[in-house]
């Protein structure tokens, strides 16, 4: 690649706690770790060997210093203006239940620095709170519209947060608008249940694929695996059996591995997934499912490196 993948969205600190009833000793515990869905995707890409630039915004407070050290330490480039001494670093409080499944409450402000596309950039990824929280959401929409004719692949993970956008109807309208500007859309089964209750995942995928640009929709199903749907194929990939520690960041690890798998097959950039075969679709979804599984075996948003992936699953 001649330029890094561009990831746009929030970077924040996850304050992760165990619900008291779920803790073995009856006492909740908390830890503060770097997070934010787009930031997690950027780290996941970099760990898998894909050069990555993150457009975000956080401060120079204690949480911001923690974020900066984490991103730089994992090889993520930060776009100019992403570190702002006048900005208060955002946080997300995640509470884990007895099964390790997280629910979130957010303290976040989102206004990105100026957005621009580097020559040769193979892909732009965005999603999560950054695409629905103003004023930053409007900037992202305008940017995606401005690059619509550029030779770059766009990926989207709405990562719906009902605590931020409680109205599923208006949120789905936003998702549809952004999805129409994207080549690939990734949803979780929880996203589907919130945004389109009572609709089968395959039907949601078919609905999104009516947009002229959208070529592929992938829907994760937790421990059941994932569904991949393109214009020519549908694949069901089963997740490997693992011992789950928690699910924090699993979807972001999945998204990073999905992009990395497409990059490895030369399907990004001006190709915009053109030539994606059923075999390609199965393999990239399987790769992503296995990367997410590794993350679920350890605490927090901790995506695997390429070496860890190979050591666990082989090449």
TrEMBL record:
Q: Name one GO molecular function term.
A: fructokinase activity
Segments forming domain Carbohydrate kinase PfkB: 5-304
User: What InterPro entries does UniProt report for this protein, alphabetically?
Assistant: Carboh/pur_kinase_PfkB_CS, PfkB_Carbo_kinase, PfkB_dom, Ribokinase-like
Q: What class of enzyme is it?
A: transferase
Q: Does the keyword Kinase apply?
A: yes
In short, the EC number is 2.7.1.4
Family annotation (Gene3D superfamilies): 3.40.1190.20
Q: Name one Pfam family in it.
A: PfkB
The alphabetical list of record keywords is:
ATP-binding, Kinase, Nucleotide-binding, Transferase
Indicate the family of this protein.
Belongs to the carbohydrate kinase PfkB family.
UniProt-recorded name of the protein: Fructokinase
Whose protein is this, by species? Kribbella aluminosa
């Amino acid at each position: 690649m001649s330029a890094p993948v561009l990831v746009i969205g929030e970077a924040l600190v996850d304050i992760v706690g165990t619900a008291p009833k779920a803790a073995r000793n009856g006492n909740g515990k908390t830890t503060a770790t770097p997070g934010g869905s787009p930031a997690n995707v950027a780290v996941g890409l970099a760990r898998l060997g894909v050069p990555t630039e993150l457009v975000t915004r956080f401060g120079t407070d204690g949480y911001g210093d923690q974020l900066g050290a984490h991103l730089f330490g994992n090889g993520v480039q930060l776009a100019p203006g992403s570190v702002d001494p006048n900005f208060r670093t955002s946080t997300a409080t995640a509470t884990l239940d007895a099964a390790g499944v997280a629910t979130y409450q957010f303290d976040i402000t989102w206004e990105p620095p100026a957005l621009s596309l580097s020559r040769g950039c193979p892909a732009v990824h965005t999603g999560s709170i950054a695409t629905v929280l103003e004023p930053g959401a409007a900037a992202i929409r305008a940017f995606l519209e401005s690059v619509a004719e550029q030779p770059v692949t766009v990926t989207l993970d709405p990562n719906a947060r009902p605590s931020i956008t409680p109205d599923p109807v208006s949120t789905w309208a936003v998702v549809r608008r952004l999805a129409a500007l994207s080549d690939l859309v990734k949803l979780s089964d929880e996203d589907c249940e919130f945004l389109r209750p009572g609709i089968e995942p395959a039907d949601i995928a078919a609905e999104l694929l009516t947009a002229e640009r959208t070529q592929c929709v992938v829907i994760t199903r937790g421990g059941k695996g994932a569904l991949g749907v393109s214009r020519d194929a549908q694949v069901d990939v089963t997740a490997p059996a693992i011992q789950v520690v928690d699910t924090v960041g699993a979807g972001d690890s999945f998204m990073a591995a999905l992009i990395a798998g497409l990059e490895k097959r030369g399907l990004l950039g001006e190709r915009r997934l053109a030539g994606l075969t059923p075999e390609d679709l199965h393999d990239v979804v399987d790769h992503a499912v296995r990367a997410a599984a590794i993350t679920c075996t350890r605490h927090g948003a901790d995506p695997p490196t390429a070496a860890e992936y190979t050591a666990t699953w082989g090449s």
